[in-house]
Design a protein that fits this description.
164 residues; alpha+beta; Jelly Rolls; 5-stranded antiparallel β-sheet; 4-stranded antiparallel β-sheet; 37% strand; elongated
Length: 164
């Protein structure tokens, strides 16, 4: 009976360790690896991280609000190659508003927004070393960090009379 319990325990341990080794947790990849804008910007909960395959493309929607400046940063595991970021207006996906491939796959950029609207962010891991038919199925983390700050210049009545 004791031998059977030991054998079952060892098998369960091997089973769960195989699951842990195979999985990759990318939950906070954007927080830990993407370049941050600075203290004047606030973290947006629209930021994302996900496991990616080399050559994979994924799209997600964000809402940008009028009167705010945005900072978007992308980063991925080196085996994913260059990370291409294209941004489209959700109402027309014909021509991208921004494509970092035109800027040597720059990993971050700033923009100001005058009106509230939905945008589509298309992220592609462009690994030229891996032909489409020869993908290994190995997944690597990729993150998109989004930050914002208000650009409205509201007048503060106490500004001139209080403080330094």
């Amino acid at each position: 009976m004791l031998k059977r319990i030991k054998t079952t325990g060892i098998l369960l341990l091997l089973f769960f360790s195989a699951l842990l080794v195979n999985g990759q947790n990318c939950t906070n990849y954007h927080i830990e690896n993407c370049r941050w804008a600075g203290r004047s910007f606030f973290y947006s909960r629209q930021s994302r991280s996900a496991p990616f395959l080399p050559g994979m493309t994924s799209t997600f929607r964000i809402v940008v609000y009028g009167g705010e400046e945005y900072y978007i940063s992308v980063d991925g595991h080196r085996k994913l190659g260059d990370i291409r970021l294209r941004i489209y207006d959700d109402s027309s996906e014909e021509k991208p508003l921004y494509d970092n491939a035109r800027f040597k796959y720059e990993e971050y950029f700033y923009f100001q927004n005058s009106r509230t609207r939905d945008l589509l962010l298309e992220v592609t891991s462009e690994n030229p070393k891996v032909p489409e038919g020869e993908r290994s199925g190995e997944q690597y983390c990729l993150g998109v960090l989004i930050e914002f700050k208000s650009t409205s210049q509201a007048k503060n009545p106490f500004r001139d009379s209080v403080g330094f």
